[in-house]
Hints:
- The chain is 2% helix and 45% strand.
- The chain has one helix spanning 144-147; strands spanning 14-18, 25-26, 35-37, 41-51, 54-60, 91-96, 103-114, 119-124, 129-133, 138-139, 149-151, 160-161, 167-172, 175-186, 191-196, 202-205.
- The longest helix is centred in the last third of the chain and has 4 residues, at 144-147.
- The protein has 1 helix and 16 strands.
- It is mostly beta strands.
Amino acid sequence: MPSLRLGLGTLVACLLLFLVGVVACTEVSPNLNKYYQGRTLVVNIVTIDRVPDLRYSTIQQPAPTLPPDAPCASQTPAPSADQPVIEPGKVQHWRLTPSGQKLELVLVRLKLENHTATSVIVNVDEDAAELRDFASTIYRPLNVTQRVQETTEPPGPQGRSLVFVQGSMELKKDCGVDGWMVFEAPKDTKFREFRWRASDSLSIDF
């Protein structure tokens, strides 16, 4: 696959770093890190990690200014009147936890690409994807923005880049995004399948 620049919009508003409480457990499957073609979109599940909680920091950055015809560019909507204005350079610390003691967070890193249509609008919400276990129980992605809580504790001195794949985005032809979706499920759940449902439909067996 050709190298792609990350689609702009809500995905590049800030730089994200995170550190979890313990070492993450990574899923291993021969079908991970392979590309699967839908009618329009291509999906690659790069890795699946399990963590007890998610801690990260955000550094607010000014929205980039690009001409409308720039490759892989999309328009970033202006903030609404009820959204607080955050000063560029401000660092905030966040923590996301499961909703129950018997649950864990499941982090799915995926690459979503468009090599077919001139432009595709993709709305990544709670119905955009599904994880299914061997009992056909369905797990849907969390809305991180609604669930995350601000904290005064920084995540730690080490971390890695983290971009959440969520919200509405425009993928121009030969452009894509590389980021994370967050699910929660009972600890040690064995997953059988991943299904993508936003602006396309395809399934990936593990």
